[in-house]
Amino acid sequence: MNRAKSNMQRPRRGRPPKFDKILAAVRADILSGKFQPGDRLPTREELAKKFGSTKVTMQKAMDILLEEGILTARRGAGTYVTNAAESKLPYFLLIDQPQGKSRFKDAVVNEAKKHSDSRQALSTCYYKGLHYRSDELDRLYTLMARQRVAGLLIAVSALKLDGSRLLDFPEIPKVFIGTPHTYGAYPSVTNAGRRSIYRRVLDYFKEKERRSAAVIMSTVDDDLLLDSPFKGLADERDIHAPPEWIQAAPLRAPAAAARLALLMFRDPAHRPEALHIGDDGHVPAITEALATLNIRVPEDLLVTAHANFPYPTRSCVTARRIGYDAREFISNGLEFLDQQRRGETPEDREVEPVWQEEVPRGSGRAQSDDA
């Protein structure tokens, strides 16, 4: 067993594992509907006998559920189930990059702030790594120790979590969002990947009868450039995509991305008929460079660009946007957390890319400000 998976299984310090199992079992019975709102729970003695524990242990478990708002005590009448939807325990979104470093994570944080659920709050907590400390992180640890957290949405690199105290609380539901991870016990909501976007983009180019295409990515990886899925998928559609038209520039160097575009389109006799901008962070710089050239968009050049909906970046030319809706990661993640609280085991889910016009209307969808 690797270190990551062994960390997942650690019981939380300072409390017997049996207590956590009893608490999780009672909570699951309530949240799964075995006990309906208004139902009277068995007595402490009956529950203690069922779980093979003491009345004192059962009382401590009931106290936690009373604090969560799942149960209510009526003097002389017993303990009753409330409407579980009225529980006020907060969700937390863990993020490992500050605002402005990742447009995807910026979009997820923005949607977390906008999350308006009368049942649960969704707070954002920054987690930089194993030795990182902050007041908000200490508060989260304290709440987790008291089981005062409904669940964690984790948008953090798995490497940063190895050995983390966050994994000392196996009874608290967790879902990884954004990228795959190595913590097999926890479900994930990930994007369908670069290849899925390329398929849709190249199908669109084919539909518009474009015979050649280029891509500018943000990942500078020699293997990716030499064996790009873009070229293979383009070949399948009889679209010409030579290696010199498959380029990349780091996000921290938008000027380099703009220069790539200028070089790629400097020769009118030998330039692609379509371009996909593979990262929304490059869209402003690349399209600004294209706007300085004598190219008619979309007549001479068809442009598509990645976006993290509902926050597409500024474009200086007409560009059809494709990408992932940040709200899908939030809504699916919260659904998975609730399933775990009910004792269910969610299966990993992939969010598929969508064109901007496919983003659901009436949900705060942002319009791009393309030229």
Structural summary, described in words:
With 371 residues, this protein is an alpha/beta fold. It is 36% helix and 17% strand. The protein contains 13 helices and 14 strands. The protein has helices spanning 3-8, 17-31, 44-51, 55-68, 103-114, 135-145, 158-161, 194-207, 222-226, 229-236, 254-264, 283-291, 326-341; strands at residues 71-74, 78-81, 91-95, 122-126, 151-155, 174-178, 188-191, 214-217, 246-248, 274-277, 302-309, 320-325, 349-351, 354-355. A 6-stranded parallel beta sheet has the order 4-3-5-6-7-13, sandwiched between helices. A 6-stranded mixed beta sheet has the order 9-8-10-11-12-14, with helices on both faces. Strand 5 (151-155), helix 7 (158-161) and strand 6 (174-178) form a beta-alpha-beta unit. The protein is elongated and about 90 Å long. 37% of the residues are buried. The model is unreliable at 1-14 and 363-367 (pLDDT under 50).
Q: Could you list some keywords that capture this structure?
A:
single chain, about 375 residues, alpha/beta, 13 helices, about 35% helix, elongated
N-C termini distance: 54 Å
Give the fraction of residues assigned to helices: 25-40%
Rg value: 25 Å
Q: What portion of residues belong to β-strands? A: 15-25%
Residue stretches low in confidence (pLDDT < 50, at least 5 long) are 1-14, 363-367
Shape summary: elongated
